[in-house]
Design a protein that fits this description.
The chain has 193 residues and is an alpha+beta fold. The protein is built from four helices and seven strands, in the order βααβββαβαββ. The protein has one domain: Gcn5-related N-acetyltransferase (GNAT) (Aminopeptidase, 3-Layer(aba) Sandwich).
Length: 193
Amino acid sequence: MSDSPAPRFTLRAPRPTDAPAVWRLVRDSEILDTNSTYYYNLWFRDFAGTSVVATDETGRLVGFVTAYVRPRSPDTLMAWQSAVDPQVNAPGLAVRMMHELADRAAEHGVTSLETTINPGNRAVALMLRKFAQERGLDVHTETLFATEDFPADEPHAHPPEVLYRMTPALPAPTRTPGPTPAASAPLTAASPR
């Protein structure tokens, strides 16, 4: 049993100055698509309200999630990329960042959350299911983009991207006639943490 206290992390909206640290996390993940630092600068300028970074007690960036509200589905937050520094002891930090995003988005009418992962990323799939369970959300999956949807001349074949759509759980059907309850409860309807 260790006497050292558990590390504390601060979650906050990203700033363009966070772009180099996020770029390094993405590059070092060896699984995420690496975009330019300029891309992350723009993202954190324009989508800071729907993204989150985690910093340790020294202020060092140790995790992030980039997300945006879908223009044609303003009730849906699309979480695009996320990573936690594997060198940091941060159990539960990825789920905590997802809760932070969902809480903020729910204040603006978001009721559903989407993200994509490749079929071999079991750790993220389990994390998403844990997040959905803690919030009382149903999880629906389907292939959003197949391998054929990516250029064949990429350095490595791009795996399919499986869409995880998390929506408010529908109540169990009842036998009494009447109107069907709406399935658009906010993401915060059931968020025990």
